[in-house]
Design brief:
heterodimer, A: alpha/beta, Rossmann fold, four-stranded antiparallel sheet, 9 helices, 32% helix, 29% strand, globular, B: 339 residues, mainly alpha, ABC transporter involved in vitamin B12 uptake, BtuC
């Protein structure tokens, strides 16, 4: 579905991505893009979302180069949630979510009843139906995250790109949100590619983990393969042990060392 | 923090944002505007009755239609223009403190107009609005470049840039004044104070044409402009051509601000006040706010002009001073509520 071929990108001379090649298949999977801060995760997502244009290399979606896609047509198929959205003026959740239908609207047409129905559905899918009439600035961070996820889902995209969806959430909400992502993949058949610097939560419910380091893909495999003490030591430079519970591996830093 | 069914607001439904929902507030505000215009035309320094006109009194007719009505219509158009400009700047810059006056856009326009006057070009038709427009565009470009850092417009930098630009333009205007022919000085003072005393029907025609064109463009781009409320990256990912939308929006807002300032001089804070008051009542997106701001802005300036005419009649207060008196406390309270 999405294929990056030798993609490089630099911010005013500083390389963020170096010759990255990955392929993401459609048909519903949860893929984590893990790595430390500054490893190139956000840049990769921005390029896939057409927010940035690849400096070098080529990106394909459904076999067509990204610049051959009409921006709106692309936006119907690929949803993107930036790490932070700051809405300057007060807005209710339903207005926020229905704005996710924008790529489907004609130049002069406003959202119709079916757009509102899809927005309500998306809110329900994110366990946020009860927030519909609430204003964003009256919500907790976790609630706001769910509303913005619903906004992405309102367009029913095939590929969903999420930049650090767990950032600024406490552990209970990270858990809740991870399960929510898993659930959405299972129920909608969309493929979710999410960036996270938190190894444990990146691994917890994903089928696949792409680990980035210094603008390169360091590892692209299953979570179980990544979540091993020797791999973590080599990739991230800290000593840790792995605890396995219910078939999931958790990394625990070795603080005594 | 969050759990299901905890919200009492769950049962409250939001009325969907459709073009249909716009009619009620538009009609309501239009009625208020028409009433304000009717009152404003009826009251003034000269005591003229509608009955006198009906009985064929030529002087009464001239006062009411040629002078007072023209002035009221120009006030309405300038109020609408400044409010439209304000709501556009606020949306594009994602900043609640943006307004053509605070950003220095009005100052740039006034500066252009003052320099044209000083150069003796004021008597050539069309020159002053043109130069005012150039000044407005220059100021917009300057404030935009100064306030931008890493793809975002920072509030502090924005306000500081506007402040500095305003000081710079004031200095240029004062220099232009001192070089102006003596006979043009009263006209020149207008750029500084903001007054509608010299309004004519041809001003009204110019403003009406520009405002109509600007509204058409903004409605055309409205679906894209409102997406900027979520940030530029987000808008780009949703298929919006962000650079083009911003260019169109800033150009349109600058052109109409330039025209308004060319006619009336600097009238501050209308572009700040009106969108906020409208937003207090209807918390909706740009497409919804745009027409409402236009009508509410017209109403505010017609009312302000009426007060400035009758407060110490037969003398007049400059309406720009009056709107500033209203706007400054409002601006300060907004600034305090900024994070």
């Amino acid at each position: 579905m999405l294929r990056l071929a030798n993609v490089s990108y630099a911010y005013s001379g500083v390389a963020a991505l170096r010759e990255v090649s990955i392929a993401v298949e459609g048909g519903g999977s949860l893929i984590a893009l893990a790595g430390q801060n500054g490893s190139g995760k956000s840049t990769l997502l921005k390029i896939a979302a057409r927010v940035l244009a690849a400096g070098r290399g080529e990106v394909f979606f459904e076999g067509r180069r990204l610049d051959e896609w009409q921006p709106r047509e692309y936006a119907k198929l690929v949803g993107y949630l930036p790490q932070e959205i700051d809405v300057t003026f007060p807005m209710t959740a339903i207005d926020v979510v229905v704005s996710g239908r924008a790529p489907f609207l004609g130049r002069f047409s406003w959202e119709g009843a079916s757009d509102y129905a899809k927005a309500e559905e998306a809110l329900a899918l994110c366990d946020a139906a009860h927030l519909s009439a609430r204003f964003l600035d009256e919500m907790s961070g976790g609630e706001r995250k769910r509303v913005f996820l619903a906004r992405v889902l309102a367009g029913a995209p095939k590929l969903i790109l999420l930049d650090e969806p767990f950032a600024a959430l406490d552990i209970a909400h990270v858990q809740q949100f991870s399960l929510l992502l898993r659930d959405i993949v299972n129920r909608t058949g969309s493929t979710v590619l999410f960036a996270s610097h938190d190894l444990n939560w990146a691994a917890a419910y994903s089928e696949r983990m792409i680990v980035m380091r210094q603008g390169l893909v360091a590892l692209d495999t299953t979570p179980a393969e990544v979540m091993r003490a020797e791999v973590v030591r080599e990739l991230f430079g800290f000593a840790a042990e792995t605890i396995t519970r219910d078939g999931r591996s958790w990394i625990v830093p070795n603080v005594s060392e | 923090m969050n759990s299901h069914g905890e919200s009492a607001a769950a049962s409250a439904t939001v009325r969907p944002l459709r073009s249909r929902t716009l009619w009620r507030p538009v009609i309501l505000l239009t009625l208020i505007l028409l009433a304000t215009i009717a009152i404003s035309v009826s009251i003034g320094a000269a005591d003229v009755s509608w009955r006198a006109i009906a009985s064929g009194d030529e002087i009464a007719r001239a006062i009411l239609l040629r002078i007072r009505l023209a002035r009221v219509i120009v006030a309405a158009l300038i109020g609408a223009t400044l409010a439209v400009s304000g709501v556009t700047f606020q949306t594009l810059l994602r900043n609640p403190l943006a307004d053509p006056f605070i950003l220095g856009v009005s100052g740039g326009a006034a500066c252009g107009a003052a320099i044209a006057t000083a150069a003796g070009l004021a008597r050539l038709p069309g020159i002053v609005p043109l130069v005012a427009f150039a000044g407005a565009c220059g100021a917009t470009a300057a404030v935009f470049l100064l306030a931008r850092r890493r793809g975002r417009t920072d509030t502090t930098r924005l306000l500081l840039s506007g402040l500095v630009l305003n000081a710079f333009f004031s200095a240029l205007i004062l220099i232009a004044f001192s070089l102006s022919p003596q006979s043009d000085l009263t006209a020149a003072l207008r750029w500084m104070m903001g007054t509608l005393a010299a309004a004519t029907w041809s001003d009204a025609a110019l403003l009406a044409v520009l405002l109509a064109a600007a509204m058409a463009v903004l409605v055309f781009a409205g679906n894209d402009i409102r997406m900027l409320a979520f940030g530029e990256d987000d808008a780009r990912a949703r298929g919006v051509d962000v650079e083009r939308v911003k260019l169109v929006g800033f150009a349109v807002a600058s052109i109409i601000t330039g025209a308004a300032v060319a006619v009336s001089g600097i009238i501050g804070f209308v572009g700040l006040l009106v969108p906020h008051v409208v937003r207090l009542i209807w918390q909706r997106d740009f497409r919804f706010l745009l027409p409402l701001c236009a009508i509410a802005g017209a109403t505010l300036l017609v009312a302000a002009d009426l007060v400035s005419r009758i407060a110490i009649a037969p003398a007049e207060l400059p309406v720009g001073a009056f709107t500033a008196l209203l706007g400054v406390p409002f601006f300060l309270s907004l600034l305090r509520s900024e994070r």
